[in-house]
Amino acid sequence: MSTNQATGDPAGPAPERTPNGQGALVVEGLTKRFGTRVACDNVTFSVDYGEVFGFLGPNGAGKTTTVRTLGTLLAPSSGTAMVAGLPLTAENGVEIRQRISVMPEAPGLYLRLSVAENLAYFVGLYELPDGRARIERALKAVNLLDRADDSCRSLSKGLRQRVGLARALLNDPKVLFLDEPTSGLDPVAAREVHELIDALRKRGVTIFLTTHRLAEAERLCDRVGIMNTTLRMVGRPDELREQLFSKSLEIRTREPLAQPERVLAGLPGAESWHQTGDGTYIVAVSDPQLAAPEAARALVAAGADLLSLSPSQHSLEDVYLQLIDTDVEAQSR
Ligand SMILES: Nc1ncnc2c1ncn2[C@@H]1O[C@H](COP(=O)(O)OP(=O)(O)O)[C@@H](O)[C@H]1O
Ligand SMILES: [Mg+2]
């Protein structure tokens, strides 16, 4: 840091902070009811400037409602939030909307108009200065400069989504809300959107991304919140895995072990074991690094043909299913 200041060669702008040190989003106890239906219930989290925060949950989990509430399009039933440094109140609506952008699931473009005409329309609507330069910057950011004069009707769904992203970038938002930005896109188009999001992150844009695609959350997000009306857990994907799953070794042998209990239960730090398939065993251990070499020796000594032995890898999908499963059980009670 100090060398950067001394040489005047900054590695990049420091993440912007509000004077009181708060983050881009600080949400406390946010609840939104529609009549008797609770769409999001007592949701609390915060997002730092420069972070890509994933909001992961199944259909109907309350993701869009949360985005629309933080985006000042719905009034919360209760709870408080700071959005891009401002308290979320009706009076602050205009100023908040100047600092943020929401890209809804459907990009909402005028199909008869060209790409540039659509963006010009929104520049006018938002009363933004320097329209021409702004539009060019936004189109450049989504690699669409060469399609500026094409009518939106002629564009594929993936390209329309990119125009939607360009529209969301017009006001240089401090916080960008992307609601299921790849929903309905084919893998190639989805990947292009992922690359654009990566590029925005490198530019330091704070992104709040809702998705029900686990791989997307894992690939793009610094942290994720797992949402199903209430917010179940928040953390980095690896933290969530650590918190939710006990440590274990996965062992595969060519033939099932003759006496698995004798070999597996005696491993150092072994807490329990179970068989998941023919010749596949999971052993819960306190320290996989310590247990793994010992396990290899014990298995070989017991005459097993060892195929593989590794600490169990849990994906974000495992975390997600575990949390959503827990929920289904809770609901059926
Ligand atoms: N305008 C609305 N009026 C009534 N119910 C709504 C409205 N918007 C959303 N809901 C309900 O709130 C719940 C959460 O919806 P939503 O936020 O769209 O979830 P998600 O985006 O995670 O799929 C759903 O049960 C949905 O039917
Ligand atoms: Mg939604």
How would you characterize the overall build of this protein?
Helix content is 37%, strand content 26%. It is of the alpha/beta class. It folds into 2 domains: 211 residues, Rossmann fold (3-Layer(aba) Sandwich); 68 residues, Alpha-Beta Plaits. The strands form 3 sheets. A 6-stranded mixed sheet has the order 6-7-8-3-9-10, sandwiched between helices. Strand 4 and strand 5 form a beta hairpin. Helix 5 packs across helix 6. The relative contact order is 0.12. Bound molecules: adenosine-5'-diphosphate and magnesium ion. Magnesium ion (MG) binds next to helix 2.
Number of helices: 12
Biggest sheet details: 6 strands, mixed
Secondary-structure element series: HEEEHEEHEHHHEHEHEEHEHEEHEH
What's the CATH C level of the largest domain? Alpha Beta
The CATH H-level superfamily of the largest domain is P-loop containing nucleotide triphosphate hydrolases
Strand order of the largest sheet: 6-7-8-3-9-10
- Radius of gyration in whole Å, from Cα? 25 Å
| Chemical compounds bound to the protein | adenosine-5'-diphosphate, magnesium ion
The fold-level CATH name of the largest domain is Rossmann fold
Q: What global shape is seen?
A: elongated
Q: How many domains?
A: 2
The span between the termini is: 54 Å
Average pLDDT reading: 88
Oligomer: single chain
State which percent range the strand residues make up: 25-35%
Number of strands: 14
CATH architecture type of the largest domain: 3-Layer(aba) Sandwich
Q: Which structural class do you get from the secondary structure elements? A: alpha/beta
Poorly predicted sequence stretches spanning 5 or more consecutive residues: 1-21
Helix content: 25-40%
